[in-house]
Design brief:
Layout: E1 2-6, H1 10-22, H2 29-40, E2 50-56, E3 64-71, E4 77-79, H3 87-95, E5 103-106, H4 108-122, E6 126-137, E7 150-153, H5 159-173, H6 182-188, E8 192-197, E9 199-207, E10 213-220, H7 230-244, E11 249-255, H8 259-267, E12 271-281
Parallel strand pairs: 4-5, 10-11
Antiparallel strand pairs: 1-2, 2-3, 3-4, 5-12, 6-11, 6-12, 7-8, 8-9, 9-10
Helix pairs in contact: 1-2, 3-4, 5-6
Length: 282
């Protein structure tokens, strides 16, 4: 018997799903990172937050987890790979909590099946917002000709620059998962970094920390400073620092429509492990 098991809060969700997610920690680093963020209270998501496991079998102890689903409003629904039979029950379960959803992100087969089922039942249409590739790194390959400069933590005095650059990052990447205020939060948490060559040239953040991996995100070089190797050196250096600090690996997402960023990360050691999509539901 397949069922959608909703959890009353993130603690209950992690009690049930954490071990399953940690078995593929690189692949589920974003989901785990969001869950830990909510557990720690350091977030600005709106209630109600949705956590669910998709399970096969009778009873709580004997059931097998097949996948996970979450939503942290105002953001879209997030799904892992799910069996086809889970889609209609999932639509019903989410509708009990949300009258509408802005989209869905995850493996394309599951995400598109969900979007199709939701719009068929409740009207509207859906479209592909982005196709993304998840990469993982366990050993850094430093550029043969490193960029001039060094990596440093962003400081409180850097907030105006960081906010402006975060807005540039959001504009260029069309991301829907961060806002300009994310820059201040990452600085407060000592997670935002600059590559500095006389002055800041490139920005990047360490996000979504899990027991053995950390995500790298918000990599942004303003147009006047591009094509000088700053992003490659910054990503390589921060990745090595995270590995030296005890991370087993690092992960990041790239837009498949941007061959430049994909090539940059491959050169420093990031290898593709999964493709996902962001779908908008209108």
């Amino acid at each position: 018997m397949l069922r959608i098991r909703k959890h009353v809060d993130v603690r209950a969700f992690l009690d049930r799903a954490e071990e399953w997610l940690l078995e593929a920690e690189d692949r589920y680093g974003l989901l785990l990172g969001v869950a830990y963020q909510v557990l720690g209270g350091a977030h600005q998501y709106r209630e109600p937050i949705y956590w669910a496991t998709v399970e096969q079998g009778a009873g709580d102890r004997d059931a097998t987890i097949l996948g996970c689903v979450f939503r942290t409003p105002p953001h879209e629904v997030g799904v892992t790979e799910l069996p086809d039979a889970a889609i209609e029950p999932l639509v019903s379960s989410l509708r009990e909590t949300f009258l509408s959803v802005p989209g869905v992100g995850g493996p394309e087969r599951t995400a598109s099946a969900f979007a199709s089922a939701w719009t068929t039942r409740f009207g509207g249409r859906w479209l592909v917002e982005q196709r993304l590739r998840l990469h993982s790194l366990s050993a850094v390959r430093f550029p043969s000709a490193p960029a001039a400069g060094m990596l440093r933590l962003a400081l409180a005095a850097d907030v105006p620059v960081a906010r402006a650059w975060m807005a540039g990052f959001i504009h260029d990447t069309r991301t829907r998962h961060v806002g300009a205020d994310t820059a201040r939060r990452l600085i407060d948490e000592q997670r935002l970094h600059f590559w500095v060559d006389g002055q800041p040239r490139c920005m990047l953040g360490a996000v979504r920390e899990t027991p053995r991996t950390t995500g790298i995100a918000a990599v942004y070089t303003p147009p006047p400073f591009r094509n000088r190797g700053y992003a490659s050196s910054a990503v390589a250096t921060l990745s090595q620092q995270l590995l030296d600090a005890g991370r087993r690996s690092c992960f990041l997402y790239t837009d498949l429509a941007n061959p430049v960023s994909n090539a940059v990360y491959r050169r420093v050691g990031y290898e593709p492990i999964d493709d996902v999509v962001d779908l908008t539901i209108l």
